[in-house]
Amino acid sequence: MIKTNREQLVCQSVIGEITSPLGGINPYRIDPQGNSDIYPGVGGITYNLRIGDRACGLFADHVEPGVSISNFTQFQGQPGPNRALNLFSCAGNLATVVSGEAKGKKGRVTGKHGGIEHVLLDFPAKVLEQLVIGDKIQIRAFGCGLKLPDFPTIKVMNLDPDLLAQLPLKATKNGRLQVPVTHLVPAAIMGSGLGSPHSQSGDYDIQLFDQPTVEKHGLDSLRLGDFVAITDADATYGRIYRSGGVVIGIVVHSDCVLAGHGPGVMVVMSSATGQIDPVIDPKANLERHLPKLK
């Protein structure tokens, strides 16, 4: 077992409601080749796209798997409650429906999507059929401040301690941490989300517009929920390019057609000094590691 500071962490409630998909006055999205079309996008309840499904090759743009929630409450004219929902929710947190026909049903947090500021949840298929837009869902937010005492140069974020305990992490003899991932992603192709001052909410995108790079790293096989390693990157205190650094993240939304965008990655670990050793494991996906619902 990898040691954590679990006993120091606070578990607190945050809440949101299922959002509606959005459409614009100009509904077309134009890709870097100049082609335009109208694509399903963020928000709502996505019935046929969940954790473990492919993230690429869909007729979609930024589609979020399962259920997307936000908190629309304004505090002193500011969206503070939604910021709290996004900052404190962690992958693996327990989510409970507290209104509507599915009241009492439980799911798990799977990710967070920046820009639109959504928290993403997965529920069993039967529960998805019971949910409606506007239903409220409360989350037991647990994981903010999670640390690995034996690895002080590795920053952990956006992970429930129970999910971290499910991951097959290994300490090496030279003091590094082995982390299973499905893919290695070069930092040079990271796009939207770079430069954010923190990584405790939101994500940043893998650009898939350069076919030789996609083929070299097998990125067209990315799945929603995959753990991936971004090499020569650091997200300890903001998402940047840093030679030798390693970032571990979870793929949270589908591929995109807009320039600078692609499958989104929510950061869960970062080492500016490269103390993380990514190990390729095709099964390193949330679908395999999420704590089972009781």
Automatic annotation (TrEMBL):
InterPro entries, sorted: DUF4438_C (IPR048399), DUF4438_N (IPR029433), TM_1086_sf (IPR044909), TM_1086_SG_dom (IPR044910)
Domain of life the protein comes from: Bacteria
Pfam families: DUF4438, DUF4438_C
Gene3D superfamilies: 2.40.10.170, tm1086 (SG structure) domain, tm1086 domain
DUF4438 domain location: 28-164, 167-288
UniProt-recorded name of the protein: DUF4438 domain-containing protein
UniProt organism field: Desulfurivibrio alkaliphilus
